[in-house]
Amino acid sequence: MNNIRKYFWAAAVLLLTSCLNELDNYDAPDGGIKGNILDAETNQPIPLPVQGSTGTIINLFELNTSATKSIDFYAKYDGTYENSQVFNGEYRIVVNGPFTSVCEGTVTVKGQTTFDLKATPYARIDASASVAGKVITINYNVQTTSSAYTVSEVYGYWNFAPGVDNGTANLAGKTTVKETSGTITFDLSNDATFLANLYKIQVNGNKIYVRVGANTNGGINYSQVITVTL
Question: What residue ranges in 54-172 does DSSP mark as E strands?
């Protein structure tokens, strides 16, 4: 019986070692890709939603190989993207964002590669913010990129963290208006969410993050995130 047990454990160790050696023989990714998703007219990064369930997905399709699945990852909310673990090769890159047409290109990845893409958002949003006590005032202006597009709603957001968008996990407060230009005000001294989480804000140097979004033809474009200090 002891001999059988010894044989069993020896065979198990041999099998495990063989599997580990097989895994170790796979090559590690030898390249990466990063860049900006730029507005085709202004040449500035297009503000995007936060990485995650509401984020802008980037698909990398490897060309000239037998690969059938894309490499998928999220763009960042400031309009940049990065994936440092990609094999060298030729790829078609597609960005599924709030753009008037498909944003795509072809890139050859060789080591850490920088590649910018261009797209046209449905709308461009300028915003600035000022603070008086615990009252935050956001001045904004939304301009569609075509007279054929209609802005149905404009949103003002505030959050404890820099990631701010229309997802419920990425905002602490939200105001909805119809006007495409004007002001949005948050009086945080009377905001129950703010008061209940005051310790978070104090630990972070009394910083609050605000943003404006515009729902245009079903797609939400954003302003850049603005940091204010109370």
Answer: 57-62, 71-74, 80-86, 89-96, 103-109, 112-114, 117-119, 123-132, 135-144, 151-159
Q: Are 155 and 215 in contact (CB under 8 A)?
A: yes
In tens, the pLDDT along 60-98 reads 999 988 888 999 999 999 999 999 999 999 999 999 999
Which run of H or of E encompasses 184?
strand 181-187
| Longest alpha-carbon distance in the chain | 85
CB 189 within 8 Å of CB 210: no
H or E segment to which residue 148 belongs: none
DSSP-derived secondary structure letter, 99? B
- Distance (Å, whole) CA 86 – CA 112: 9
pLDDT of 13 higher than 50: no
